[in-house]
Each structure stands twice: as C-alpha cells, then as structure tokens.
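Appendix B, example 12.
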Amino acid sequence: MYEFDKAKFLMERFDDETVLVNVITGYYYSLSGSGPDVLALLDEGLGVDEVAEAMGAGTGELENVRRLVANFTTQLLAESVLIPRQSSPQSAPQIHLNRNAAVAFGPPELTKFEDLREILLLDPVHQVDPQSGWPNRQ
C-alpha cells in the first residue's frame, strides 16, 4: 500500500486535471484522465488491484484497466509522488470517484514539466535583492 508524499509535494485539483509540484526538485506534474482518481484511491489505502476493480467496473476491460493502473502506479513511484505507506489507514478505505459513472474510463496520465523548475526552486526569503526585487536569479 502507498500514500501521497505530502512532505515533498503540493497538490491542486481542478475540474479535469490535478497539478502536483515537487517542492524539493522543482518539477511539476499534470495528472489527467483517471489519474487524479487513481492517485486519490491509492492514497486512501487501496491496493493496485482494488483501484483497478473500482475504476474498471462495468467497462468489460478489467485486465486493460489493471495494466494501466499498475503502469501509472509505477510512474508515480518512480517520481516519488507515492511512497510506501508508513501506517495503516485510520479507517477502511472508501471508494470516492470524482467522475460521472456514465463516463468511460480514461487512461491515467502523468506528464512531467521542467520549464519552471528554476523559478520554483528560487528561495523567496533569502534571494530577494533590495534593488531588483524577486526573483533575483544568479
């Protein structure tokens, strides 16, 4: 079982996308498709198979959904978005999906961005220059 690494990441969920920012590395990520729901279910304490069953219920493509969820989980682990769960969930995991049941399963997608890395890593407290303000790149 896994959990979202709240110590390293900030997360903001919008209508159809979730944005994650790694405050240590400066990389930011976009989760789309069923990615936000998969991450939420994994963070609640469900295993990969349980998430796949919840997401693939009624699709007739359970094996394909299971493969996509497993691959997505591997990506999240590789980027340290997910870490092994340190403790058991406080209560039994509940399945809460933020999607309409009539909407077809969309493959979970994780996209990594580096273009703002330099700016995200600037330290606004210590790198403010009285003459030029912030950010003051070296």
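The longest helix spans residues 62-78. DSSP finds four helices and six strands in the chain.
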